[in-house]
Amino acid sequence: MVMSSSIPTCYHVLQSCILNTPLFTDIATKINISTGSIRARKISLSLSATYPSPITQTTINDLNFEDRATRFRIKGLVQRITTLSSSNNKTQMLQILEKDPEFQTISDFNLLLMALVIAQKLDICLSIFAKLPSFQLVPDCCTHSIMIRCHCEKNDMDEAKRALDTALEKGFRPDAATFTVLISSLCKRGRVNKAREAFEAMGRKGYKASVQAKNCLLKGLSYVGKVDEALEMLMGMKGTSLEPDIYSYTAVMDGLCKVGRSGEAMELLDEVVGMGLVPSVVMFNTLIQGYSREGRPMEGAAVLELMKKHECIPDCVSYNTVLHGLLKWNEVLAALRVYKKMVGLGLEVDVRLMGTLVRRLCKRSRRKNSLLQDAYDVFEKMKERGPVVDQPTFEVMIQALCVGKRFDHAFATVNEMVELGYSPEAITFEKVILGLCAGGRVDDAVSTLVLLHASGGIPSKISYDMLIKELNEAGRLFCGCNLFGSALKLGVFPTREPRLNVIGWEELQVTRLS
């Protein structure tokens, strides 16, 4: 008999099926995949099967997984095979197997095939399976179940169905979990009718239907938009041995929300609570997304409070989904409140949503100046996350700072933007230059113009006119002349010219004569 173990079963290895039932309910070892190597550990796994076929069977019980030599042989073999797979040298790969004198049982090969499936070396797995006859080995029920899984992982559902038909024709009975994997894979690819056929075949073969298989069908129907059929199936499960669970309701609620029927999804949530089931975070998040799609973001935000009422803590996805919906439908102030709540809770805000929030707040700050500080705070928070702020967000922030007469921040931000390698539009520089000139900061304005030129832009005539005007008023003739000359050299003809101070010129001539 297979020895029991406290280590998790194969279900945990194959959990990517997104099923509550394992693919292999009894196979004999767990394989760990790490950087191309596979380590066999003591664990209990197996495929439940009956063998009416007269063909000689090799069952999983033939493997002694307590034998250290067996474990190391499997590990070394898989390491060599996966190394060769990188060079696509399948001939050498099969030669390794042929030269291994101890690799003689179908159980050994089942272990190897399963390890390769888990390692996503699917083509290698298929090649080895095709060569089994040359090793004088006959595939057993376990082998066929592994190959069904392999074809599902390869997204080759026709071959997966053929592998199942072959196993059944040979008299094997793969367990219900194997059928469920096939049904799940078909549904994920939108082939609901084929999934139904597989489900009905389970019944004809005498298998007891499972809630997991039904849930796969519910999800598949919802995925292809057949929501009414999914809803009817859900209602039909009530009061039977296949009583719907949280996953059943979540699948149908998701389908309802995707077709604009979030109100009905909310009714299902109430039904879940009435049945004494505990709603999941995923269920609530589905509702939030539905309200957002329907242009009802405030109702989506209200779901956050509903979650707390049912003692379900909103996660990062919950808050980011609410924030996305509020911004999508221009509920900027509500979005700001949700953002601040997230920051207060230490949750990570999606950086793209932060950028959208900055731009919306900047736009609103023209009418409500107090929002400018909020926009700048979000902007600064974005910069803490590294170089994630895009050029449009930088430019909108700079323009808003100029409109709000916060030229110190605008000047610093435009310099930072250029340092990051962005090439701002000339209009962005122009607003900063005009603002600095209006504040009497001519030197900083000239520096900004030089920065524009250095970043490959050409200053506008308006920028030159404003700078020359300020320099004239400050009596800085030499600087004004240089600026005027640089403009002409770039093909820009300013309206203003450097103005000579007549009195200063006469005094200069007298000084020179004396």
UniProtKB/TrEMBL annotation:
Keyword line:
Repeat
**Which parts of the chain are PPR repeats?**
140-174, 175-209, 210-244, 245-279, 280-314, 315-349, 390-424
| Keyword hit for Repeat | yes
- Asked if the Swiss-Prot or TrEMBL record annotates the protein with the keyword ATP-binding, the reply is no
Which Pfam family, any one of them, does this sequence belong to? PPR_2
The family annotation for this protein states: Belongs to the PPR family. P subfamily.
Name of the featured protein: Pentatricopeptide repeat-containing protein
